[in-house]
Amino acid sequence: MQTNSVLGEAKSRSTSDDSAGTIVQSVDRALMILDIIAAAGGVETLNNISSTSGLNVSTCHHLINTLSKRNYVVRAEGRGAYALGPQVKVIASSFNSEDDLLRRAEPWIDRINEVTGETVHLAMMQGDDLVTLVKRDARHAVRVDSGMIGKSAAAHATATGKALLAWMSETEVNRVLAAKGMRSFTPKTIVDAQALFADLENVRKVGFSIDHEEFQPHVVCIGAAIVSGGKAVASLSASTPIMRADEEHLGLIRDEVMAAAQALSLFNGAHND
């Protein structure tokens, strides 16, 4: 059965030798208990948790008490029964939200790419890292190589990054800068914190960010934040080689990127008070 398979894998992870690195035993055991409760349908008794895990009842009880304090486990109806707590739902919701955002953004990314013909990115902050999740290449024969999917330390130098930083507090931005620095990618990269804060203030005023050869020479990029609950959860951008960056084309890129970001923000229930 699938349940037995899940339990077997959980127990195996807890008892197998550590070939990949140091494992904190108490953390591993606590996660195994969550696996066991989940495999039982979300509710399980202390005795069954003990039996399935191979741990004594006292050890299980101490681990469950710790999980309970963090709301990962709660008492359920029935003597000695425990259920998955609300914090598990918070984590699951966060994972599903990112997946939902990618799915909802897909047609808007396609539209920007089709209407402007340019390279389109979707990015978000994960901790102090700017992470590009989606990249749609330009349709033109002459296109920009605007970086790869994945993490970068270029939030201060990119349109996607500055669109996100503009929605963060000064303390949060300073934390990102302290962790990642302000590397100079081109002679036009902003490498002074005060100059960056002035730029971010302008982003907040006009509603979009611009990277004018700050990340790559001869490349202009315009970005806008996707907002949910008063916070930027992601950003969209489109990049063009400077040879096509006349006022009309940049206006088209700006309008398409902003329209997509605003539509996705409204879908997320953004509060822009």
The largest beta-sheet arranges its strands as: 6-5-4-9-8-7
Q: What number of structural domains do the residues give?
A: 2
| Percent range of helical residues | 40-55%
* Secondary-structure element order, N to C: HHEHHEEHEEEHHHEEEH
Shape: elongated
* CATH topology-level fold name of the largest domain: Beta-Lactamase
Question: DSSP helix count?
Answer: 9
CATH homologous superfamily designation of the largest domain: GAF domain
Mean pLDDT: 86
Please identify the top-level CATH class of the largest domain. Alpha Beta
- Based on CA atoms alone, the radius of gyration comes out at 24 Å
Give the beta-strand count.
9
Structural class: alpha+beta
Largest sheet: 6 strands, antiparallel
Distance between the termini: 52 Å
- CATH arch. level architecture of the largest domain: 2-Layer Sandwich
- Strand residues, percent: 15-25%
Q: Can you characterise this structure?
A:
A 6-stranded antiparallel beta sheet has the order 6-5-4-9-8-7, sandwiched between helices. The chain is α+β, with helices and mostly antiparallel strands and 273 residues long. The model is unreliable at 1-7 and 13-19 (pLDDT under 50). The protein has 2 domains: 2-84, Arc Repressor Mutant, subunit A; 95-267, Beta-Lactamase, CATH 3.30.450. It is 49% helix and 20% strand. The chain is built from 9 helices and 9 strands. InterPro entries: GAF-like_dom_sf, HTH_MetabolicPath_Reg, Tscrpt_reg_IclR_C, Tscrpt_reg_IclR_N, WH-like_DNA-bd_sf, WH_DNA-bd_sf. Keywords: DNA-binding, Transcription, Transcription regulation. This is IclR family transcriptional regulator.
